[in-house]
Amino acid sequence: MINRNIFFPVKRKxxxxxxxxxxLLAFIIFISKPAYAVSPPPASQSYYMNTIDTNTLxxxxxxxxxxxxxxxxxxxxxxxxxxxxxxxxxxxxxxxxGGPDASLQEVENAVExxxxxxxxxxxxxxxxxIHLVVGTNNSSQATYSNGKAWAEMVNHIASYxxxxxxxxxxxxxxxxxxxxxFNSPDATKEWVDGYASAYRYFLYNYGSADGCPxxxxxxxxxxxxxxxxxxxxDIYQISWGAPPALAIPEIYNESGTSAKQxxxxxxxxxVHDHGxxxxxxxxxxxxxxxxxxxxxxxxxxxxEEGWQQLYDQLNKxxxxxxxxxxxxxxxxxWTDETSAQSSDTTVKSASSERSASMKKSDNIHLPAIKQAxxxxxxxxxxxxxxxxxxxxxxxxIPDVIQHDKKWTAKILSHIDDPINNHQVNFTNGWRGTxxxxxxxxxxxxxxxxxxxxxxxxxxxxxxQLNNKRLLISEKKFKTPxxxxxxxVIENRGDHLVIRAKDGYEWIFNTVTGNFQDK
Length: 518
Hints:
Residues 1-37 form the signal peptide. This protein is 29% helix and 21% strand. The chain has 11 helices and 17 strands. An 8-stranded parallel beta sheet has the order 6-5-4-3-2-1-8-7. A hairpin with a 5-residue loop joins β16 (505-509) and β17 (515-517).
């Protein structure tokens, strides 16, 4: 471990400085690119965010830093903070999951608070790092201007972190949960083009490849079709082809279908371009098992299973082989009960039993345009260390104090629910304050629509939140009769007027889940 009190404050002669700088850069490269064995790396915890409260985000980062400090060895994990889809607001801010809209400045302040919390929380551990991805999704306003605005926000956060020493241990990039069922390929690629017009840092696609080919022995010769008029080429472009694009794809399916789809895309890239490099796997076991939530059957891979499926599929074929697949992360909803860290974040070293055929040369190297981003990360780390501050001298509070916006009851025109979007076509929703003492929480959000596999079956999803507006339960209710997709048309306290596609109406009790004919 480096004793920075010796290493940084004293000016050295130029030769000594050069030697020390070379050693430092070698050290940075070492901690930024750990080698893993063929067994899965420990999984980190990522989050769907319903808050931009800087005290909350600082505490999340601090808890993660504390765990890394207490875990033997040098830690390096990826943390995705998904703030929801961008809205029509003037500054392209996101609509938080189950909460009010947030501005880009509020997201920026929140992520900077998380960064500071992690940096402070690591204490005497000056070597562990996190790779922090600031995410949105493509389910709503996937436009060129929104993509550009997201990139500019990421640039601002990274610059701030470097100026305040946080980049010493926080590597920052942008991200987007890009899924074919959420939006068209043209709109999504427009957003990516916007991000690429202003990027300084990577754009991680942590989305899916819904409906894409999943052959066991892909040839890569054709451009296979995916869901919603997407193609393998489209997925490739947003995951590797675009200058800043990398991917940590969703490997949710227990059957291995997701892993096969992504190996097919990698094979397509090898045949039609120069190949691609995936950075890890994301699962949703935490979200699927949280409270009363439930996902589509068979889509709750545990993180070690999802990672292993992807690794094994990639390494079945010399054209898609990767001896390194550095990251594994599992996503869940942020609640009071969720921990800001995984139960095991020990970084594992490379196995001496690794097959002789699995050498570093098997990996697709980063093209020069992407390597320039890696080099920028190293420069940010060095800038942070040149502006070195003793952690003990920095106050344990966010640099900017901000709280979530006031909760106002209203009908919601857009529903952003990445778990249930796979099962429900949403029409609209409602949010408000619970009036009944029987309610488990202080606040509710209600989502209305129809089942994707039975469009005549209306469905209502109720999320209850505590006084901090953090999720405490989720329940699904099917309409008593099949009258088509339903929507909220009126609020009467804890009761909502629900109208089906054919005009049939009910009074729905948001606390009990009962439907009463109107």
